[in-house]
């Protein structure tokens, strides 16, 4: 139902423009021809290795491995860290993707145990980690934190966590699903942000808008072990080329666009201030992702969404129920759509939402 409504819309608020399969595949074919791309074979090939090396150099790591999914990538990195320390304990925020959205794979596959760290609605600090008396093998930190509106920890707080993990021989892993969106607020290069993380995962389909896939980064020893473990999990597909090409052909362009997306998010916040019934979280943007809270239930928010889609061909996303019964929120990623949307058009969308709330 919701997908059919989305397909009939002509104005989209969150996210990036989604080309048709024909458009995507044609662009991929043209790019492959222009750059003389050959298929990898089970992950071996000049193009794929060059792309892995490019991202490793950008993030300051010795090696990188293209992986089909992030869900396969992150538990593997954490499992390897636990095996190296003969300790199954991993600490992470309770909003972490592994904790919430991966079917408890870490638990049901006996890979490691999770200690939740910090307040579920805030970024966490070193004191939150120290509150656990246990010996900890690995720690995961997500930058930015999607489930709490794209929040980022203060730089000094992050540096303190890095230093502590280094001193205590704790493997610090970066969930960088949206790392590309973190640079603008920090005002630092990517390798500065990742410095101190023993391993990192980055997505190639979220901000980069590829067809799928991820990179795992770390030292050569970790990557060599991870390569074998991906094979054991069925991730050794014969050709990674389609996924890698779809990301590589627009990688530089997407990264170059990130400052403009953050600037546009700041402008969006200023416009939203004129609508007191709409509340963004966080209060000021820390990335080009935020949550917009409405004083209505998810059921009502869905009805508003569907009405705008049917009557105005406007798509505003997927509402989620908040803690209060008469409160819900939309996750809005400021991408191509909002970047290119005129302010008056955006105000008209907010006017329609506000009219339905009143």
Write the layout of secondary structure elements.
Elements: H1 2-7, E1 11-12, H2 21-35, H3 46-59, E2 63-67, H4 70-85, E3 89-92, H5 97-101, H6 105-108, E4 113-116, H7 126-130, E5 138-142, H8 155-167, E6 171-176, H9 183-186, H10 190-194, E7 199-203, E8 214-218, H11 220-232, H12 241-248, H13 251-272, E9 279-281, E10 289-294, H14 298-312, E11 314-315, E12 319-321, E13 328-333, H15 336-340, H16 343-357
Helix pairs in contact: 4-11
- Please give the number of β-strands: 13
* Main sheet strand line-up: 2-8-7-6-5-3-4
Proportion of beta-strand residues: 15-25%
Number of helices: 16
Main beta sheet, described? 7 strands, mixed
SSE ordering? HEHHEHEHHEHEHEHHEEHHHEEHEEEHH
What form results from the Cα inertia axes?
A: globular
Structural class: alpha/beta
How far apart the termini lie comes to 26 Å
What is the helix fraction of residues, given as a range? 40-55%
Summarize the structure.
The protein is α/β, with parallel strands linked by helices.
For the structure shown, list the relevant keywords.
single chain, about 350 residues, alpha/beta, 7-stranded mixed β-sheet, globular
């Amino acid at each position: 139902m919701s997908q059919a409504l989305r397909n009939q819309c002509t104005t989209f608020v969150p996210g990036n423009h989604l080309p048709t399969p024909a458009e995507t595949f044609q662009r991929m074919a043209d790019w492959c021809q222009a750059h003389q791309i050959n298929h990898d074979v089970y992950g071996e090939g000049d193009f794929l290795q060059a792309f892995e090396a490019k991202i490793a150099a950008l993030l300051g790591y010795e090696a990188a491995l293209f992986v089909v999914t992030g869900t396969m990538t992150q538990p593997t990195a954490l499992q390897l860290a636990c095996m190296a320390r003969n300790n199954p304990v991993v600490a992470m925020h309770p909003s972490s993707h592994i904790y919430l959205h991966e079917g408890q794979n870490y638990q049901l596959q006996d890979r490691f145990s999770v200690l939740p760290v910090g307040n579920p609605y805030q970024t966490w600090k070193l004191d939150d980690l120290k509150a656990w008396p246990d010996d900890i093998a690995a720690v995961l930190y997500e930058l930015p934190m999607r489930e709490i509106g794209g929040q980022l920890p203060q730089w000094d707080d992050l540096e303190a966590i890095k230093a502590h993990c280094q001193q205590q021989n704790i493997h610090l892993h970066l969930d960088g699903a949206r790392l590309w969106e973190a640079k603008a607020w920090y005002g630092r290069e990517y390798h500065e942000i990742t410095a101190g993380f023993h391993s990192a995962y980055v997505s190639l389909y979220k901000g980069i808008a590829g067809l799928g896939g991820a990179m795992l980064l770390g030292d050569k020893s970790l990557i060599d072990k991870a390569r074998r473990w991906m094979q054991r999990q069925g991730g050794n597909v014969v050709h990674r080329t389609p996924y890698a090409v779809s990301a590589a052909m627009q990688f530089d362009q997407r990264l170059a666009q990130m400052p403009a997306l953050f600037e546009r998010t700041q402008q969006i916040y200023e416009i939203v201030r004129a609508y007191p019934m709409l509340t963004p979280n966080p209060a000021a943007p820390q990335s080009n992702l935020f949550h917009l809270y409405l004083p209505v239930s998810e059921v009502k928010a869905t009805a508003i969404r569907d009405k705008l889609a049917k009557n105005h061909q406007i798509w505003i996303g997927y509402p989620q129920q908040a803690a209060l019964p008469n409160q819900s929120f939309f996750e809005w990623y400021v991408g191509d759509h909002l970047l290119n949307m005129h302010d008056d058009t955006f105000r008209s969308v907010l006017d329609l939402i506000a009219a339905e709330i009143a």
